[in-house]
Amino acid sequence: MMAIAGIIPVAKWLAKIKQRSDVSCRLYKGAREQRGASTENLPEETYGHINSAFCDGMATTITAAHHFIWRHLYASMQAAQTPTSKLRFVTPDKESSMSTLWQEEEFKQICSRELLTKKAADVNKTIAVKEHERERYDFDPTMFCENRFWNRRPDGIVINNYHRTLYILEFKLSSDRNKDFLRVKEDEANEQHRSIIEAVLRAAAPEWTFEQINFVQGGVVQ
């Protein structure tokens, strides 16, 4: 009930009612201290922060919740197929990187690994490098661009060989405290795999259709 009312006793709220002066995340600090990392420049302990995998102290719990909910949803979609369905649900039990998927003959028939590598290198040069990626990019830009594609891990893949259509499924678990959380998480999901769908795969296999379907779950992780 406190979470619903917006008064969950996180550091930022406690500071607002003059019960605490330090707004830094205690969970994040504890996780860093445990592994001997620096505790400088800690993020604020807000309701949204502790309900996200960006909090070092909650990352394992949030990730486990994400996987548990997604496996249930994925299995439900798979079970709902009709006997005549042409869809094949790939990797129902775990995520697979693009590199792992393209070791399977079914995916190699869409386009070759060599062609994908070339297109990935070309396309990724046009996508901005984030600050935390800068060091790896500067060390070897070509290798960085290739790896940024091959290491992508969509939550799910559904393929229809009959219609030459591949669906990339992405699931986002988020606090719904922010009224714009659906739009924010939708944008995050689209950006996460934009280089796969909008560029690399379409450039390498123009005769196929590639579509991303996003699922956003709002709520509090208990």
In short:
The protein contains 12 helices and 4 strands, in the order αααααβαααααββααβ. It is of the alpha+beta class and 222 residues long. The protein folds into 2 domains: 49 residues, no CATH class; 157 residues, no CATH class.
Features:
222 residues; alpha+beta; 2 domains; 4-stranded mixed sheet; 12 helices; 4 strands; globular
Give an overview in words.
By secondary structure, the protein is of the alpha+beta class. The protein has two domains: 2-50, no CATH class; 62-218, no CATH class. The chain contains twelve helices and four strands; from the N terminus they run H-H-H-H-H-E-H-H-H-H-H-E-E-H-H-E. It has helices at residues 2-5, 11-16, 26-34, 47-50, 59-79, 98-101, 105-108, 113-124, 134-139, 141-150, 181-192, 194-204; strands at 88-90, 156-160, 165-174, 209-218. The protein has a four-stranded mixed β-sheet with strand order 1-2-3-4. Helix 8 crosses helix 10 (141-150) and helix 8 crosses helix 12. The longest helix is centred in the N-terminal third of the chain and has 21 residues, at 59-79. The two termini are 12 Å apart. The mean pLDDT is 80.
Total beta strands:
4
Radius of gyration over C-alpha positions, nearest whole angstrom:
20 Å
**The biggest beta sheet, please?**
4 strands, mixed
How many separate domains make up the residues? 2
Question: Strand fraction band?
Answer: 5-15%
Strand neighbour order, sheet with most strands: 1-2-3-4
Classification by helices and strands? alpha+beta
Low-confidence stretches: none
**Helix percentage:** 40-55%
Order of helices and strands: HHHHHEHHHHHEEHHE
Q: Quickly count the helices.
A: 12
Q: Give the quaternary arrangement of the chains.
A: single chain
Shape: globular
Mean pLDDT: 80
Ends distance: 12 Å
